[in-house]
Structures are given as C-alpha cells and as structure tokens.
Amino acid sequence: MKALYCGALAVVVAIAGFTQDQSAEKQVKGNDSAREKLIGAWHLAHIEAPEPEGKPSDINQPKGMLIYTRDGHMSVQLMYPKSANNQSNEYVQDGYEASFGSYEVDEVKHMLTHHVQGSNTRDLLVGKDLPRVYHFTADGKLIIQSARPDEHWSVTWEHY
Question: Whole-model pTM above 0.70?
Fold first, then answer.
C-alpha cells in the first residue's frame, strides 16, 4: 500500500511540475516587454549615417548581425563592402565593426545601454557604456539610434 501511495504521489508531483513549466512558458511567450522583444538574432536591414552638415550619406550598406541574449549579453558585427574605402572610426576598423558585452534596458525611456567588454577597436570602446535610443516599428523592426547628441546615425534591424 505504501509503494502504491508513493507511486501515486510521484505522478501527482510530475504532473504539477509539467503544468507549472507550461504556465511559465506561456507567460514568457505572452510577455510583450521590450526586453523580451529584443531577445534573439537580428540582421541589418538599413543604416543611415548623415554627413556632418546633415546631408544624407551615400553609405554603402554593410552586412550585419545583432544578438541579444535573455541573460543580458549582446554582440554586434557589421562588415562594410570593400567599396567603402576601408572605413575607420571609433566603431569601425578597416571596414569591420564588432563589439560584445552586456546590456540594460530602460523601457520607460526607450533606452538601451551597451556595456562594451570587447571590441575590434579595442581601447576606443572597451569599458565604455554606449547609450542607445530604440523603438519597434509596427511591422516588428528594431530601430536603434545613438543617444549622443554628436552622433546622428540610425540602424534598422529585422529578426531572422
């Protein structure tokens, strides 16, 4: 009798655990927070980087990937075409941009902050916090812009 009771109890515990797991999964899938929308891999759809005078730039569109993980890590890579004359700046070295680290989201202010732990431009970005303004379009695209007043670029990403 005792064995039957223990077996029945094990079944009840297993069913309760399964039901709890399903409920947690539904809660995560049903969560429409900006943080949850960010999670995953994104490919670069378009980048705009106006000239200092405010004129639109004829930037050759790079290829790129952006990744946000649920546990708070991020990674971004952009590769500019060879015709971009091996562009270099604070973010790009010889036509390639890459950084990784952690991130925070302030959903009220629509701000992301990338905490750079590694970058192909090394000392120019490593250890810096890069504030970003973000918003989602009606069709699910992610638009990220610098929060710095001296930077006027805008990047549009699409989920893979």
Answer: yes
